[in-house]
């Protein structure tokens, strides 16, 4: 009997991609356990830290490195990472650029906002939506991964003291189910507003949903108090680990495609507008190389500005890394960064503050504007982004973790019609 090995080779290739991604939560888990043991000797056991993370309302900005300790925060991220990898393997998802972006975004925001408990009702809500529509769960899993931007709603309702204990658990679960159920149809409509020029589309959608929910809560005289719990000191071990992981991505890229250094310029020609999947357009080798380059660049930028690599900054760096597989590269990202810095100079921002740092990194959500319309448009977009993102959080009360995605959608929706109007005006005879 003759056996074909084509399917086995294809499956092995997919397994290799999953293993490449799994390196991040694996390293986080090992680091978290060892660091947690050290913290435990100083009176802060790992389980106590994880419990503090789970019981926190998690609204913006709640840094899990402070709430639960460094060890517990990295373990929380690792557990969420492995859970999502299991789902990707279980539903036989193709490892493309958007999936990589979703994975790294979820992994990063597990350092502030998402924990192993508050994401589960949202996933279940997505499952119920898939059953209701009679479509495969794999069709919605990516949107649901991103929609955990609204996980703080679950934690706030459950542990915010709004309802009596016990009943609050039920209400928190129901809120998560509702979010997971409605986010898929909403996200497909919201992309029309910014026409694909905001890479964090779910962030914009979550901002709309968060605004509606926050407004409803305020109507019942329930206000969400602002939170600003942030680690204010750098940990050299975290920085060193990130450097090693980003070099690892560069190494994987070079090993996957030996001509990556020569061919890297190919990725720079793409504008980045949704859908720009680098894994399909230039291959996995160049994609992983680009992710490593963007990761090192982001980390270096943070350190040059005197910033702290805390929970929110970790989320920002890892999100940039993830979306470097789906739209971002140095050429279309730097104009946005330049625009934010110029606006920061003009308005006298503290460049080392966490608020400014994450606004700077997350501004690259609208990198496609620079890619499509040039660096000047990108600089202007970056300036607008900073002014919006630092004032818009009050609308949704901090329950949308992707606040920059919300602001980016508004910037794109505001700028694009104006740019197109001038383009049409210039083309007239």
Describe the protein in words.
With 429 residues, the protein is an all-alpha fold. It folds into two domains: 7-219, no CATH class; 236-415, no CATH class. It contains 20 helices and no strands. The chain is globular and about 60 Å long.
Estimated radius of gyration = 21 Å
Which structural category do the helix and sheet elements fall into? mainly alpha
- Tell me which oligomeric state these chains represent: single chain
SSE ordering? HHHHHHHHHHHHHHHHHHHH
Using DSSP, what is the number of strands? 0
Q: Tell the overall outline.
A: globular
Amount of helix: over 70%
- Major sheet attributes: none
Alpha carbon gap, first and last residue: 72 Å
Parts with pLDDT < 50 across at least 5 consecutive residues: 1-12, 425-429
Instruction: Output mean pLDDT.
Output: 91
* Number of domain modules: 2
Helix and strand layout, with pairings?
Blueprint: H1 6-41, H2 46-55, H3 64-67, H4 70-90, H5 97-109, H6 120-133, H7 141-147, H8 151-159, H9 167-194, H10 201-219, H11 236-256, H12 260-263, H13 278-281, H14 284-304, H15 311-323, H16 330-346, H17 354-362, H18 367-373, H19 375-396, H20 403-427
Helix pairs in contact: 1-4, 1-11, 2-4, 4-5, 5-7, 5-15, 6-7, 6-9, 8-9, 9-10, 10-20, 11-14, 14-15, 15-17, 16-17, 16-18, 16-19, 17-19, 18-19, 19-20
Kindly summarize this structure in a few lines.
The protein is an all-alpha fold. The chain has helices at residues 6-41, 46-55, 64-67, 70-90, 97-109, 120-133, 141-147, 151-159, 167-194, 201-219, 236-256, 260-263, 278-281, 284-304, 311-323, 330-346, 354-362, 367-373, 375-396, 403-427.
